[in-house]
Amino acid sequence: MNVVLRIAAAAALSALAACETVQTTDAGAVGVTRQQRVSSLVTAKEVEAAADKQYDEMMAVAQQKGLLNRNQQQVQRVRTIAQRLIPQTRVFRQDAPGWAWETNVLTSKDINAWAMPGGKMAVYTGLIERLNVTDDELAAVMGHEIAHALREHARERIARQMGTQAVSTIGSIALQIFTGVQLDPQLTGSVGQAVFVLPNSRDNEQEADTIGVELMARAGYDPRAALTLWQKMGQATGGGGPPEFLSTHPSGETRLRDLQGYVNKVMPLYQAAKR
Which of 44, 159, 191, 253 is deepest in the core (most CB within 10 A)? Predict the structure, then answer.
């Protein structure tokens, strides 16, 4: 029975009962140990396959519109940073350096960046240009997004979404995840929702902050740049509203204070990497 039929056949069951507890990463120096709840109906490989398909489609559209990798200097800069960050993922997941990583730059005024399950990433020119980010700040945002992928936060959000849907709609969610059938033209399916639409939880953001600063520190980027990045992000406005990035990465009043604590913890790693 294929994936869609398995999920549709399980629609009569409680979605919450179909959840399992997992630990997707090792703790690292920052000590990420929260037990995660994911749907046993949707495996990591299935989510990654759906994400890969959506990523390829998005890049094809961007290519057709002339919005993909227009500035080769920016592309080289972003990919160089990615190449330094990716080997550090082994600290949290032994399999992660072997993912089919891909990094592209999209021409858009939006201040945004994201990483899909399995390691496909995009950085928007609006982030690079409007915030005038340093390499360290760019490493901070990319490390943060890589952390979301390592911890499979999209898969967690899919589980939460399925858990809050009426039983009659679970089959529709399955179709959106695995076949690309879009019942709502404003959304890109449940995987797309999990990456682009649904806000991250406080736990998700805390984990991405902690893992992100450790990744950048181990790669030789100054983790203190994470503080200046979020300060710039908080000050930026576009079209009368906050950056698109903040719509899925909510920032609370205590975030910078907490982030300072994480930065202090990983500074020895940065200093060792710079020797």
Answer: 191
> Is this prediction's pTM over 0.70?
yes
145 is catalytic: yes
Contact in structure between 148 and 203 (CB atoms under 8 Å): no
Q: CB of 257 within 8 A of CB of 274?
A: no
- On the 0-12 / 13-18 / 19+ scale of CB atoms within 10 A, 100 is exposed
Structure confidence by residue, pLDDT tens digits, 32-65:
877 776 666 677 788 888 889 889 989 999 999 9
> Cβ–Cβ contacts within 10 Å for residue 154, how many?
30
Q: Which position among 145, 156, 205, 207 bears the catalytic label?
A: 145
Tokens of 191: 């995987």
In this predicted model, what pLDDT tens digit does every residue of 63-103 receive, in sequence order?
Answer: 999 999 999 999 999 999 999 999 999 999 999 999 999 99
Q: Residues 249, 197: contact at Cβ < 8 Å? A: no
Amino acid at 271: Q
